[in-house]
Specification:
The structure is a single chain. This protein is an alpha+beta fold and 106 residues long. Helices cover 39% and strands 25% of the residues. The chain is globular.
């Protein structure tokens, strides 16, 4: 399984990435001095995981990451708030049934 995720940083920006292990990757982002976090999060404190989608392959996870990164900040915030925007923004770009949104709140 691969996961495409969005995390919020201390400056209220949103970082998007992919991983095979969400817990490990979030810890890596928090360890800013370790060298395993992303260049983007080295200078920004990671606050929280905002959204996570599961997919079967690295290719599908990367495809979603690419399209999320092209969204405006407003559209990223919409995507975090309501999954209806997932279909609205991406249904014409790829098969949205390749992704399952993971409930990160329990």
């Amino acid at each position: 399984m691969f996961y495409t995720y969005m995390i919020r940083c201390s400056d209220n920006s949103i970082y998007t990435g992919i991983t095979t292990d969400m817990k490990r990757r979030f810890r890596e982002h928090e360890q800013q001095k370790s060298g395993v976090c992303a260049k983007y999060t080295i200078t920004r404190k990671v606050i929280s995981t905002e959204a996570v989608w599961q997919s079967e392959s690295r290719e599908t996870a990367s495809r979603l990451e690419y399209h999320i990164k092209k969204l405006t900040k407003k559209k990223k915030e919409n995507l975090i708030l309501d999954n209806i925007y997932f279909e609205k923004y991406f249904s014409e770009k790829f098969n949205i049934n390749d992704y399952i949104r993971i409930d990160i709140n329990g």
